[in-house]
Specification:
With 365 residues, the protein is mainly beta. Helix content is 2%, strand content 51%. It comes from Characodon lateralis.
Length: 365
Amino acid sequence: MYHKEKSIQIKNSASALYNNLSVLRIAPRRLTYFTVVHANVVNTVSASWDGLNYSHRQLQSKEPNVATSTSLIMQAAFCVLPSRDLLVVSSQKGIQMYESDGSIMVYWHALDTPEAPTAQAVFARGISAVSDNYICVGVSSGAVLVFDIPSKGSNITLSEVLEEHKEAITDIASECSGSQECLANLVTADDGGNMCVWKSGEEFQLLNKIPGLNITCSSVKLWKGTVLAGYGTGQIRLYEAVTGILHAEVNAHARWIYSLDIAPFSGLLLSAAEDSFVRVWHVSMTPETNSVEIAHLHNECVTDTQICGAKFCDGDGYAFAVTGYDLSEIIRLPSDEPGHSNGKWAAVTGQPWLSTDNIELLENY
């Protein structure tokens, strides 16, 4: 289904952080932006689609009244809103928001840090845009900060703090299918594996809490009303967001999952873990029976690499990119199957190359 092509070199190697890769596709300019975190630096690369031009930029973590901050960055992620795209960086000291190319910092929010040293680390982690004008960022206390984003300018305000979690936030995701019928449009996950499902608005409404059994949920996605969660056990679980019903549980990886991604137009799911494997799955739904199925489509091994980031490069899943701990490159894998050329996937349309020989269909719960 996919093949490796020439990697994109980055200035520093990737840190071993959850979801340590973010991708933003700029179709009008035929560019794709990539961002990877290394210690207290964010490496950004702008790559032209023809593979001929690359532009690199590095962003340092910031803190007030300090020329060069040594605070570690926990995550960098592109946030796409209807009116603008922003690059959000979360660290041990605070939250920075930049224009998507990293050229201008438009907002800085400092975290509350205790005056006396404590055993509890302080940091921000988990970033997602939601609805038309909000960006949510999680913090180590378990709180989720909701920022109201204007259509332009730097008049960004902290509009609400959600305080349902008791453990550090690991990841946040918004409904990515574009469907207006889904009641839930935000999911937050923490170190204990607990997830909260929300409906955004002037005041965010808690719809459901899904218990985690003290197993870290390191990466989460929300698609067509279904929560897709990756865990430290290597499992992927699919829950109905509003009811918490478990639809499927997959023993997907031998070691800790670091990243999930979903291609919203095709239902392709990407999972990446410490076991050096990236796997592609297909998620399908049958509304009449309220059932969800997941099928395994493809494996890719990055030998001797602890994979820490994996993202599709487009909404259909025609290509994806991977980062690994201590790798100073972004590995790109475009599709080489017939589905790529005609703009449709066999997983969705029944192309002949997707046969029962290369599908592992997993039982619904």
